[in-house]
Design a protein that fits this description.
The chain is α+β, with helices and mostly antiparallel strands. The protein folds into 2 domains: 9-25 and 107-216, D-amino Acid Aminotransferase, Chain A, domain 1 (2-Layer Sandwich); 29-104, no CATH class. The protein has 5 helices and 12 strands. The protein has helices at 9-17, 34-44, 84-94, 157-164, 170-191, and strands spanning 29-31, 46-51, 61-66, 69-74, 77-81, 100-104, 110-111, 114-125, 128-138, 153-156, 197-204, 210-216. A 6-stranded antiparallel β-sheet has the order 1-6-2-3-4-5, sandwiched between helices. Strand 8 and strand 9 (128-138) form a beta hairpin. Helix 4 packs across helix 5. The radius of gyration is 17 Å and the shape is globular. The two termini are 14 Å apart. InterPro entries: YheC/D (IPR026838). It holds the Pfam family ATPgrasp_YheCD. This is ATP-grasp domain-containing protein.
Length: 220
């Protein structure tokens, strides 16, 4: 039984940020506004914007600032503009008609130039939560989103970590991911009683640091 559904990415992010054991794993996240976008681009150089309600990589756009100016990537197309206002105008036309949030861009570890992230799926069975899967999702060549429905390739968690970060200790990183998942479950259950299934999307950046990209209450 799937249990309670909670569509809002922002509400789940707020719950995770409320706990000091978890907040350091959450990239800087804010509701979308022109001022927030400009500020976060100045600070981080690249951000990801995504609909507050939605899944499967739908409507997700990477926005960046570099030596060429400002730009954004949507699916496999990148557009560059000389100034911020030109880019922001084009971005507003490209966005889907939903409310968005902005998230600090994370430089994902990659395999042959293809970014990889991880999905950890847990299900509540009676009083206890069980781990059902821990898998890597390797982006289709040319895309930055890793979703399998967008052509991503599924790997085991071990294989993904080994191939993308060959110098890290894989067992320690998997254990950290599992322990973080258990901590998050406790916090999310206290905020949203009745949830029975969760899918955690984790990034591991090029230095081996784990980040929580988002949590789904109806994971695919």
């Amino acid at each position: 039984m799937a249990g309670r559904q909670l569509a809002s990415k922002w509400r789940k992010t707020e719950a995770l940020l409320s706990d000091s054991r978890i907040s350091g794993y959450v990239p800087r996240t804010a509701p979308y506004s022109n001022a927030a976008l400009k500020s976060m681009l100045q600070r981080y150089g690249n951000v990801v914007i995504k609909p507050i309600v939605g899944g499967g990589g739908y409507g997700v756009i990477k926005v960046f600032r570099d030596g060429r100016g400002y730009g954004f990537t949507y699916m496999d197309r990148t557009r560059i503009y000389r100034d911020y206002s030109s880019m922001a105008g084009a971005l507003n036309r490209a966005k889907v008609k939903r409310r968005y949030l902005i998230q600090q861009g994370i430089s994902l570890a990659s395999i042959a130039g293809r970014p990889i992230d991880y999905r950890v799926k847990v299900v509540k069975n009676g009083e206890h939560w069980e781990f059902r899967s821990m898998v890597g999702r390797l982006a289709r060549p040319g895309l930055f989103v890793t979703n399998l429905c967008k052509g991503g390739t599924m790997l085991t968690c071990r294989e993904g970590l080994r191939r993308s970060l060959p110098r890290i200790k894989i067992s320690a990183k998997r254990k950290e991911m599992r322990n973080l998942t258990l901590t998050c479950i406790g916090v999310l259950e206290s905020h949203f009683p009745g949830i029975g299934e969760l899918g955690f999307d984790y990034a591991v950046d090029r230095s081996g640091r784990i980040w929580i990209l988002e949590v789904n209450t109806r994971p695919q």
